[in-house]
Amino acid sequence: GAQIMVDAELRKRIPNVKLILGDSAADEEAATERAKNEAEEKIRREKEEKEKAAAGSDDEDEEEGKETDPAKIAAAAAAAADQGNDVPVDRVVWMYESDKGWQFHENEVSRDLEEKLRSGVTETTIHMGEDLLIVNLVKGSDGKGPSQTKDGEAAKRLRRHVKGEGLQGEWEMISLRHSPP
Questions:
Q1: Which residue ranges have biased composition labelled Basic and acidic residues (predicted)?
Q2: What is the per-residue pLDDT across 65-119, written as a single tens digit (0 to 9) for each?
Q3: Residue 175 region by backbone torsions, left for phi larger than 0, else alpha for psi between -120 and 50, else beta
Q4: What's the pTM?
């Protein structure tokens, strides 16, 4: 409740802020669905081109079967969703939810997570101090958004934030860092 209120207030003050929450709403779902449809359409077109060019080669039929694998379609959809994204990797900040509010990942970790997301990776591991975390970068089949899990602990929500340029971007970061008493 309080986090939604903070986000709504931030959006009022800074209209160009782009927040993608772990439990994001219809806009993210629609973008993901469009990307999935585009990926499926691309696979279908490639399949038709191969059929025309090869006229039924057995080796290519096996490759085509692999391309219709749902896991590959999901990865291609995630990659397609971010290919149109002209935002530099350095402006993307990844955060995780803690008892003290949203905490920022280090710049190297944010860069690594963003590059993996853009390359279509849906799950990865990162080192945070001495801990090894399992990170899910996209919404899972359970409907929950991105999360990170430390061995033996409950999953923590992840959040991807695209920082604005210049002073506006710095103000956003200060607003996101602020944790009321």
A1: 31-53
A2: 444 565 665 665 555 455 446 788 888 999 988 888 888 898 899 999 999 999 8
A3: alpha
A4: 0.51
